Amino acid sequence: MDLQRLMAAQDFQSLDELRAFMTQILGKQVPSFPEEALNVSEQAEDLVLEAYELPAAKAKAKVNKALKLDPDCIHAYEFLGSQEKNAEKAIPFFEKGIAIGRKKFGGEYLKIHKGSFWGFYETRPFMRCMQNYADCLYTIGKVKESVAILEEMIELNSNDNQGIRDQLLLFLIKLGENDKFVKYAQMFKKDSLAFPLFNRALFAFKTEGDSKNAVKQLLKAHGSNKHVVKRILSNKPITHMPEYYSIGDENEADYVAQQSQIIWKETEGAIEWLKKHT
User: Fold this and answer.
1) Among 6, 82, 95, 274, which has the highest number of CB atoms less than 10 A from its own CB?
2) Which value, in Å, is the radius of gyration of the alpha carbons in the chain?
3) Segment 21-73, tens digit of pLDDT
4) How far apart are CA 236 and CA 257, in angstroms?
5) What's the CA gap between 222 and 201, in Å, rounded?
6) Phi-psi bin for 241: left (phi > 0), alpha (psi -120 to 50), beta?
């Protein structure tokens, strides 16, 4: 946070000046900004960051204090939404954060920065609100609405640093939006982890049946992580979401299955097809 503020305080006239500055501070402790040097928005942001280290009740009090300083603090609404275990209760907070973000980052800002929103610190709480909102919409059965948010996120940040494209492609399979699936699959055709590979296999089966291409896609996916099929075929719902995973390990399989198990099972014939070829 202090690094972002330090960078913003500079007046770089060229890329060479930026590089020289970064070289100069490399390995050094970034100086903290005293509270009196911060504007109300920055003070509110700091209060929200402090809230993450506190018990729930104290954290909410801290965030409410932040909102009194800056009612448009998107990070505060992201925090409040993330504290709700019920999707319907969380949605209003994320909607508020998104509404503020669309107003704040629209117009000329959008024209300049569209396609690279994740590259700027100030837009990240907005993008995280969108991701959480899309998750909540899917949870309550509003799949089309979730897809619309995910597509907007890709437009705002074409590199998809948040990794929402796997969910987007999976939901497009569920909705039967074949043209859109092809569009985004082509956009991210270099993806080679288990999740996108199993998405491609499921799409191929749903659109082609038990074709040579579908089987080829399935075997390629299965080869990327041999634990995934077992997880998908399990009668137990995958409720555990691992904090991290490595390529090909069981945590990755849990992540893929937790996201996609239901859609595989509701796709007619897909489970039998998995058993047949793996």
Assistant:
1) 274
2) 22
3) 556 656 555 455 556 657 899 999 999 999 999 999 999 999 999 999 999 99
4) 11
5) 10
6) beta
Q: Which of 173, 229, 230, 231 shows the shortest CA–CA distance to 203? A: 173
Q: Does residue 134 contact residue 150 with C-beta atoms inside 8 Å?
A: yes
User: Would you state the structure tokens that stand for residue 260, as one six-digit string?
Assistant: 């996609």
Helix (H, G, I), strand (E, B) or coil at 167: helix
**What is the spatial distance between Cα 86 and Cα 102, in angstroms, rounded to a whole number?**
25
* Cα separation, 275 vs 229, whole angstroms: 8
Report pLDDT digits (tens) over 78-120: 999 999 999 999 999 999 999 999 999 999 999 999 999 999 9
CA 62 – CA 50 distance, rounded (Å): 8
Sort 51 into a burial class: Cβ within 10 Å, 0-12 / 13-18 / 19+: buried
Longest C-alpha distance within the chain, in Å? 67
DSSP state of 191: -
CA distance 99 to 126: 9
Q: Which residues contact 60 (CB under 8 A, 6 or more apart)?
A: 51, 80, 83
User: If you write DSSP's letter for every residue of 255-278 in order, what string do you get?
Assistant: HHHHHHHHHHHHSTTHHHHHHHH-
